[in-house]
Amino acid sequence: MEQHGLGAEFWLEFFVMMGAAVFLIEGMPNILRRRMGADQKKLIFPEHVNDFHKRGDWILGISFAVILLSSMAFIQPNSLFFLLASLLFPTFQLIFQLYVEWRFSENRTNYKITIVQIGLVFVSAIGILLWLEPYIG
Question: Fewer CB within 10 Å, N side or C side of the chain?
């Protein structure tokens, strides 16, 4: 009998990789926030530092949605564009958050944690891309 789609070993590896990525991107910064005395962040609907941060966050989100939706008409569905766009969007949001925390936040430790979080996003992205290489190519 011929197997269609991805095998069971792929899905086991997938859930392990996604769990590791979530832990690196969300778990490690939360642990560091507690240890370094930074402000605790909400996972969903984070608090904005000021109105500039709120507007910039909305602009980034809307522009990401417009770029992603408009690119669906021109780019092959199986290309790496959507994966890279999905990895770059949180990175741009974190870079903007880093700037706002560095410039306007009362607790100066917050931006240091955001720097660590950006590094962890890059490490996770490289790990996921290296892991996906045999399945894509």
Answer: N
